[in-house]
Amino acid sequence: MNPKGSIWVLPNIPTCALGAVLFVFWSIPTYGQPTAAETDLSRAADIAMRMSRSVVIAMLGPADMTILSTDGGEWSLEGSAALELYWLNGHCDPVSVMFDSRSAAVGWSEGRALCGDSPSEPYAWPVPGEKYSCDKADRSDFCR
Predict the structure, then answer these.
(1) Per residue in 72-84, pLDDT tens?
(2) Cβ(44)–Cβ(57) below 8 Å
(3) Distance separating alpha carbons of residues 4 and 24, to the nearest angstrom
(4) Is there a domain that residue 66 lies in?
(5) Which stretches of 61-128 are DSSP H helices?
(6) In DSSP terms, which residues pair with 17 in a beta bridge?
(7) Is 35 part of any domain?
(8) Exposure winner among 15, 68, 114, 140, fewest CB in 10 A?
(9) Domain residues for 128?
(10) Distance of CA 71 to the CA centre of its chain
(11) Could you give the number of structural domains in the chain?
(12) Is the residue at 6 inside a domain?
């Protein structure tokens, strides 16, 4: 008891730790941090599991790049993915959707995770190179 006869209450340690963590995160600059959807394409990317490739392309338009199951190296596919389509997304990370061998969506990024400060200052997100362009004859059929 304290000198006036009441019980001392110690602060809840987990609550203090949580407050310290929140203070630190609110103090970090926001460039490159997760943001709300900032492009029309990201807002249109309402992808759902098992959605067909044709429905996704109807929703987003023709893709810009594709990775095929036969590609290897840095951009090779993993897991059950047989095809991945990419749409360039202005100053934000690209929209990408992975499809299985039956052309059903099995994974995606709606291009909302990272954006630059403005269209003139895009976030430098890596994208597949020209080899993977949907303008190439061996890839165009997958993109449209």
Answers:
(1) 888 889 888 999 9
(2) no
(3) 37
(4) yes
(5) none
(6) none
(7) no
(8) 15
(9) 40-143
(10) 22
(11) 1
(12) no
